[in-house]
Amino acid sequence: CHPGRGFARRTLLGLGAVLTGPVSVFEGAVEVRLADGGRRCAGRVEVKQQGQWGTVCGNYWDMNDAAVVCKQLGCGSAVGAPQYGHFGAGSGPIWMDDVGCNGTESALSDCKHRGWGEHACVHALDAGVTCSEYTGFRLVNGSTACGGRVEVQVLGTWGTLCASHWDLLDAHVLCRQLNCGFAESVPGGEHFGRGTGPVWRESFHCDGTEAHLGQCPVITLGASPCSHGNNAAVVCAAGFASLRLVGGGSRCDGRVEIFQNGTWGRVLDDQWDMQEASVVCRQLRCGEAGTAYNPPKPERGTGPVGLRGVRCAGHEASLALCNTSLPESAPAAGVAEDVGVICWGSRRVRLVNGSGRCAGRVEIYYQGIWGTVCDDGWDLSDAAVVCHQLGCGGAVEAAGSAQFGKGSGQIWLDGVSCSGAEAALWDCPARPWGQHDCGHKEDAGVICSEFMALRLENSDGCSGRLQVFYNGMWGSICSNSMTLDTVSLACKELGCGDGGSLETHLSYGRVSGPTWLDNVQCGEKTSSFWQCPSAPWNPQSCEDPQEEIHITCNGNSEPPGHPSVTPAPVPC
After folding, report:
1. Is 141 exposed, middle or buried (0-12, 13-18, 19+ CB in 10 A)?
2. Nearest partner of 519 among 504, 508, 532, 528, judged by Cα
3. Which H or E run contains 398?
4. Which pTM does this prediction carry?
5. SS (H, E, C) 10-25
6. Does residue 50 register a pLDDT over 50?
7. Enclosing H/E stretch for 135
8. pLDDT for 337-367, tens place per residue?
């Protein structure tokens, strides 16, 4: 065994440590589950009636309905109620339509609806839910409510958040969620003092566009222990006349809204141009302005108007310092319409079609449009910049020839030649934006060291040695502290049913390679295998081959509800 095993149970604080209470069973309640959301507490809503699973129509589906589903599943609070097939179209009966919960019901079947099987709907409109096990967020020890040490409440227990993966994108989401504008900085150490109580080791991986931290991917597996001296913190930029951009693909593009008198309001103008856009981008710390525009009709706002008519010289520090005192009776050059901006800070990179945020086809968001990167000259130095930019560690493979599928639309970059030290992919030498001689069959991809996947090695379907892919290599998982809750989540992740058993009489031989993990401790209500606390990543986690875990799942091998690309072992 390794040195950390003796104290692992005391120091491994993650969601599994507090989400172990009994599941409430509601008498007469119809069973509910969430499908194809990548974790237990997010996905398409499905209910079981007459022994058959079916879906719920998205007509009139709202946060009150979602709140009841989250409560029934023991998944905390609702942070999203997507309608109209957000998690894909289901199959089978559509059991419920026109659901109308008030939010206080104990089960979805207690809510008003048309009647079982009565609907005017199609599966393209299936309702979804995103729940968060996190039931509260606050900033403490700061001079205002919009700055301080981050504290997170997990089903009633408050604790501080470890800063090991906390960054500006995560902080932006929390500031927006708390109505505190955007993040100015993320001070480290004990800037806002030491916390008390548990230190959550969860790492949030937001892209900056989420409305709530609970909507961001969360990883706990393999995280190192954390002390109160390494607390996540943020200083938000908030106050009268704060701005935000909505409806875009990043924090730094979209329709402009202003915060006044406690509410967000639309900004309307009849002569919106680059001078005003420059001020908006500067105020939001989004770099230079790229485009000033009036959103098309489907993207216009419908709420209250916060500002009508504004004239800037272009050098002002905030929109409120521009001339905003234009009288209602002032002659207008045209009709005052909603206004939008695209700032240079809106550029983003993502990896798609790779079964995780740290592997996939490289896509860049530029000028409000997602596009791909050509693989001409694409190598590990280029891939390393992408991985670092995404907080995904180092690069273990620079993939070409559309290994992660062909993209569509724009090809933004070609001839990329990074040194590996650049902060962003667009800082690397390359041909001008949009200039290329490529087709999508040459789309570039990446596998980063933080990419994780599960498989059953020596498997004839849904049984075998459980292995995890990390740092470019497949490795085993040790059986210490292993419970059936952990086996269940592994089987769900593998698309092999919802439970299974630990094998005790092993017929498999020892394999070479690392043994990555030990003391994986999933709780009864943990959403996902990746949110289970464990000992830190260690390629020699178990010394005895008998400690390697082998499982048999209760289902047949089916592809999970997301695109899958199985990584090949990368030689050491």
Report:
1. middle
2. 532
3. strand 395-399
4. 0.77
5. HHCCCHHHHCCCCCCC
6. yes
7. strand 134-140
8. 999 999 999 999 999 998 788 999 999 999 9
